[in-house]
Write the structure tokens for this entry.
Amino acid sequence: DQPRSRGLGDVYKRQALWNLTSLTVNRDRCAAAEAVEVTVQAMRTMHLDASVALQACGALWNMAIGNEVNVRQCGATGGVEAFVQCLDTFKADAVVIQKACGALRAVVTSVANARRFGDAGGVDVLGQVLAAQSGIGGALGTRDSRAAQQVLGAFQTATAGLPANRALCGAAPVLQVLIDAVRAWRDEPAVLQRACAVLQAVVDGDNETNFRAAELGAIDAVESALRPTSGLQPGAARDACTSVLQRLTIRIGQQV
């Protein structure tokens, strides 16, 4: 109930549960103690409190790492929907977003939870968060490379092995943000590499999405990162750019 959750809010602000769950043995005890359910409840009840969101996400992240029972409980108790709400509420808060996306990545390793995330509108919200953390299209927020990396990592995990979520990423609004992220982070190799990896996962094996991406400017975005004037050095980021460019320039099996 709300009084119980509000009391727990004070606990989260003191980082008590977050600290306790850093130990594997305590993570295993969380399921029996209903810690996941209560944390999700507090997160949803006090969804406008950034301090509670930060600590709750940290605790859920710890509880979910390598613990399938806690991952399942998070999904069964509305935790995935709570993450979507948190991302939507704090999309311009880089600190909360880093923690929320890190925790989300641990939770959506479950295909069932990844599906819940897509069904709850999470892919669209994640696109809005990426825009905010990348300074795209006038979105409110401060450009933050660490937050952007976590957001892109969440895209990767939420779409891995789940065509339905990849299809949601291929819809015009989210796809445009992914393309714009390649442009926005061409001066940050670590973020650029991840942005290209996500874009390739979305267009790979889907000619319709591939065509749409090209129409939205994906080829130009990647080529601009590869131009000599960009300063991009040989390495993982350049390799990721080259790989997605090769995929983007394929038309029904023909290179152009």
Remarks:
- Residues 16 and 55 are 9 Å apart (CA to CA).
- Residues 1-7, 252-256 have pLDDT under 50 and may be disordered.
- The longest strand covers residues 250-251.
